[in-house]
Each structure stands twice: as C-alpha cells, then as structure tokens.
Design brief:
This protein is α+β, with helices and mostly antiparallel strands and 171 residues long. 36% of the residues lie in helices and 27% in strands. The chain contains 5 helices and 7 strands, in the order βααβββαβαββα. Strands 1-2-3-4-5-7-6 form a 7-stranded mixed β-sheet, with helices on both faces. The longest helix is centred in the first third of the chain and has 15 residues. The chain is globular and about 45 Å long.
C-alpha cells in the first residue's frame, strides 16, 4: 500500500483531483444515507462549484507519488470550521486522516486559533467514531441546512485543538 507521505498546501492544479475524491468519498459513504439522485447528479454539481477555486483558510493535500491520497480544508475562524476531510480508499488505515487534521490544526494554531468544529451526516458512524477517537465531542444535532431534502447534521467540537497540534509536531 505505501505510506502517503507528502502533506503540502493545495494549489489550483489540485482542485480537479480534490473534487473527484470528495465526490467518490460522498458516494461511498452516503449511499445509504442520502438520496441516490442527489449523489448521482446534485453532489457532482455542488462539488464542482465548491472546488472551482481554493477556499479561504487552509487546504492541505497528501500525495502518494502523483496520486491524491487525501485532503483537508479548514477555515481561518476561531473556532475553525473543518469543511472537509477525505482520504482515498487506497490510503485508508495508515493514519493519514489524523495526520492531515493535525497538520491543518498546526497551521491554524500559529494564527491563534485554539478550537474547531465540524458537521457530519447522522448515520455516518465511521466518521463519528473517528472524530471521537480524536477528542471531538458531539455538541448539537438538527436539520442539515446544506440539503433541500430531509437530513440530520451532527456537530462535533474540539474545545482545544492543542493535543492534535502536538501530535502533528511529534510526527
């Protein structure tokens, strides 16, 4: 499998691969949670628009050779919003998700950011377990405003990102 090693800032040249991985990840993860017509059509359009330009904040990619192994996107607010964290199938299970998140948190911490949050779709139990292992705590659940169909979002918060920053600095 190889260990995806290089984590670097995303560039505009990375955007097509980021959009493709994001879509593939959503389709695989949400197949039983979101409507098929949305995953087949609406998600493609939404993510193409989302990844047309690099967002404000920190977007990092992990590369394995010339393949995108994963990415993370976090805004610059305090608390910071973790907008996306996705790892390609071939790179899962090697600790890349925590490495990406820790690297992003280390960068934003340099600007005084000390806490962060994100939302997951209810029923995404793998994400729930992953974020809880990394110290996030559920703080809210309710209707997901991102979709025009019924869906429940769950918010997870890190009141203090320093443990993940220290883990990144130690690696």
């Amino acid at each position: 499998m190889g260990h995806p090693g290089l984590i670097r800032s995303a560039t505009p040249a990375d955007l097509p691969a980021i959009a493709a991985l994001h879509l593939q990840s959503w389709r695989a993860t949400y197949a039983e949670l979101l409507p098929a017509d949305y995953l087949n059509d609406g998600a493609r359009a939404q993510l193409a628009e989302k990844w047309a330009v690099l967002p404000e904040g920190t977007t990092l990619v992990a590369m394995q050779g010339n393949r995108l192994a994963g990415f993370v996107s976090v805004d610059a607010a305090n608390p910071a919003y973790v907008d996306a964290l996705h790892v390609a199938d071939f790179a899962q299970g090697a600790g890349l998700g925590p490495r990406l998140l820790g690297a992003a948190f280390a960068r934003i911490a340099k600007n005084g950011v000390s806490s962060a949050y994100l939302y997951i779709v209810a029923g995404n139990d793998g994400a729930r377990r992953f974020y809880e292992r990394l110290g996030a705590v559920e703080t809210w659940r309710g209707p997901d405003p991102d979709y025009d169909f019924p869906s429940t979002a769950i918010r997870f918060d890190w009141a203090d990102i320093s443990a993940l920053v220290r883990a990144d600095e130690a690696s």
